[in-house]
Amino acid sequence: MKKINKKIIITALSLVLLLTASVGLTAAYFTDYEAAKGGAVLSLSGQTQLEETMNGNNKTVVIKNVGETDMIVRVQVIGDGDKVKVTAGSDWEKAGDWWYYKKILTPAGTAGAEASAITAKVDGEGDFDIIVVHEASRTVYDGDKLAVPNGWDADAVAKIALQ
């Protein structure tokens, strides 16, 4: 049998010791963590409330922002053909089947949290259904202008006054 050289044994033991130490350091590196400190509150919730009042055959609608973020809104009035006429103040703009509110609804409890009224008037007598659909979107900015939500009229959204 051949005699084992001391240099080979010392080199092999050194290599095993080095690998053992590096495994421990590597495991420590990958399992260590640091808890996050501080933070910021970011509110992305938006909520609107539709208030409808009837006066005879006329339905008046007011939209309120009861959430915590700025909102843009639009309204669609569905009625019995030509018998339903929609009247709105200068704060509303008609685009297609929708009426767009030209101002931003600010969060609840602030001035501007309520949209001006829009009224659907019925010409004639009888039983009519006036259905009001409203949609709201958080204000999202694309540079210095409002981003257009999917399905919304880009020209109408462009006319919403930035405050």
Oligomer: single chain
CATH architecture field of one domain: Sandwich
CATH fold-level topology of one domain: Immunoglobulin-like
Uncertain segments are: none
The SSE string, one letter per element, is HEEEEEEEEEEH
Q: Using DSSP, what is the number of strands?
A: 10
- Biggest sheet statistics: 4 strands, antiparallel
- Look at the structure and give the CATH class of one domain: Mainly Beta
The computed structural class is alpha+beta
Strand content: 25-35%
Helical percentage:
10-25%
Folded structure, characterized:
Helix content is 19%, strand content 33%. It is built from two helices and ten strands. It starts with 5 loop residues before the first helix and ends in a 5-residue tail after the last helix. The protein has helices at 6-31, 154-158, and strands spanning 48-55, 58-65, 71-78, 84-88, 92-95, 98-101, 118-122, 131-138, 141-142, 145-146. It has a domain at 48-158: Sandwich (Immunoglobulin-like). The longest helix is centred in the first third of the chain and has 26 residues, at 6-31. By secondary structure, the protein is α+β, with helices and mostly antiparallel strands.
